Amino acid sequence: MEPEKCGGGVGARVSTSPPRRRSQTWGSLDQSLSRGLGCWSPGVVSLAVTWPRDASQETPLSSEYDFVLVNIGRLEAVSGLSRVQLLRPGSPLKFTPEEILIHGRDFRLLRVAFEAGGLEPQAFQVTMAIVRARAQSSQAQQYAGISLSKAGQSSGPRKPPIPLLETSEDWETERKKQGAGSWRVSPVNERFDVATSLPHYFWVPKRTLDSEVRRAFGHFHQGRGPRLSWHHPGGSDLLRCGGFYTASDPNKEDIRAVESMLQAGHSDVVLVDTVDELPSLTDVQLAHLKLRALCLPDSSAAEEKWLSALEGTRWLDYVRSCLRKASDISVLVTSRVRSVVLQERGDRDFNGLLSSLVQLLSAPEARTLLGFQSLVQREWVAAGHPFLTRLGVTGASEEAPVFLLFLDCVWQLLQQFPAEFEFSEFFLLALHDSARVPDTLTFLRDTPWERGKQSGQFNSYTQIYTAGYSQLPAGNSVNPQLSVWDWDLRYSSEQILQFHNPGYDPEHCPDSWLPRQQPNFMVSGPPSSVWLFSRGALTPLNQLCPWRDSPSLLAVSSRWLPRPAISSESLADQEWGLPSHWGACPLPPGLLLPGYLGPQIRLWRRCYLRGRPEVQKGLSAPTISGLQDELSHLQELLRKWTPRISPEDHSEKRDPNTIVSQSR
To answer: PANTHER family annotated for this entry (predicted)?
Structure first.
C-alpha cells in the first residue's frame, strides 16, 4: 500500500486495534507533529496521529490514535519478523526499520508503518523527537497539562457536569442528598492547615466542635482523622480514617473527641483493618506489569500456557480479594445500625477503593452515570488519592495503579449485574484511558492542595498539534475549572452515547429504592459494642483508641491478637443469622453481593487485549449497527462450521448456540 501524504508531511501508514472501531484503520502522520515535538518544553506533550475526521467533529482527543508521551511504555523499530530494536535517546538505528511500534501503558499498541524504502529523513527526525520528548517528559516532576481547542473557544465560565466538591455548598448539598442529618460540613481544613491531602471541607458529627476536630485529627497519620464517607438510608454510617499516630500523647479530652467521632452516635462500632487480606502497593504494581507484558501482542507466553501465565500475574486474585472484602463490608453496613470505620495507615488508597465498592454494592444511586462520577470525585479526587504518583507519571518508586484495579472491580460488577448499572463498559474504558491523559487537573495532582494551587497558576500549556486543531486557543491559558467529567471536550456525541448501558433497568433508579430511615430495616447493635473486622470475622475489642490500657489493635496491625478462623459461613449468614428478622427476603433491597469464586472473576478483554484485534471480535457491541456486525460474524462462523457436523449431530443439535459452542 502506497504511503499517504498530508500537507507535505511524512507519509506513513498507521494502524491500531481500537475497541470502538474496526480492527484496522489507516491514516497519516502529519508534519505538524514534528513541529509540536520540535518546540517541546518541560511539561506534557500529546502525540496525536491524524486519521480521517468528520468536518463537524470538534473533539481533538477522541480517538485511539491519540497518544500522550507519558503514556508511552516503549518505542521499537521493526524490520521484518525478527529484527527489533528498542529506541532510546541518542541510540543509533542499527538497521532500516519498516515500522515503528508505540507500546502504550494503557495496553494499546500503535503501528506506524513507512513506505517500502524505509524511513525517510523527515520521518526519522519525527521518530527520534518522540524518543527524546518521551525521555524528557518522564523526568519532569511538574506537568502543566494540555489545552483543548473546544474549551478555548467557549465563552464565560463552564459549569461542571457534577459538583467538584470545592465549596462548602457542594458538600452541604451532597450531605442533604444522603440524608445525613447527624452530620455537618466542617471548614476546619479550609486553608489546608490540618492536612494538605484532605479537601477543604468534609463531614464530621454535628455535636463535634471544630476545635475538637483539629485536635483529634492530629492523632492520626498525616492528620487524616475519622470523617463520613457515606450515610446508609437505614441509619448506618461508613467512615474512613488514617492509622492511629501512637507516638502522640493525647489528653483525656482528645481521647473522648476521637472516640466520639469514631462512634458517630452509634452504640455498635466496627473497625475494619483495610489492608488485611489485600495486596500491598508493590504487589499491585508487579501484577499490573506482568499483566501488561502478557496481554501485548509480542508476549512470549505460549498459547497453550497463556491462561496459566494469566493466573501467575495474580491480578485477578487481587480483584477477587477486593470484591470479597467490599462485599463483607457491605453486609456490615447493611445488616445493623452501626458505625463502620475503614482504617488504613495512609487513608489514600484501599480506603477509597473499598468505600467506593461498598457504595456501588449498597446504593443504586451510585450505579447511575452521574452518581458514579460523583462517587469517584468524592472518594478519590477530593479525598486525596495520589494519582500522579500511583500512575507513575512522576517516576517515583511508589507507582501502583490502585485506581485501575478499582475500575476492573467495577467492570466485574457490571458483568455480573448488567441491568443494575446505567453506565457501560465503554464509559469505564474512557475513564481508564483518561487517567493517563493529562488534559485536566483531575488526575494531574496528588492532593487537593496541589490541585488548588495549580489552578491559580495554570497559565501555560503545551499545544496539541493535529490536523484541523492547530489554532491556538483564545486567552493563551487553560480553564482551571475543566475536569475529566467534561467528556464533550474529548469525545464525540456518538461516543458519549455509548457511555450509557442499553441493558440498564430504569426500575432500579434511586427513587424506587428504600425509604429514608426505614424503622424495621436494620436492628441496633448491643450497647457499647466495639468490634474488629479482620479475615472475614468479627472479634470483640475492649476499647477504641490505643492510648489507654493496651496497645492499639490496628496501630500494631493486630498481630498479637489471636487470628479468628475464617468461617465456612458467609458474613451475611453470620450477621443476619435467624431468618425471622428478614422473613422471606434474605437480602435488603438494593444490595448486591457479587460472586468472586473461580470463573466468576474474568479478564477485562476489551481493555487489556485491545492490542489484539482478533480477540476483540465476538465481544458484544454497544450499538444496533455494532450488534449487526457481530451477528454477521457469528453467522459466518456458522457457515464455516456447519459442514463439519455429521448428519446425526446436525439432526440432534439444531440450536445455533450449540453449534457455536462446538467451534470454541
So the answer is: MYOTUBULARIN-RELATED, MYOTUBULARIN-RELATED PROTEIN 11
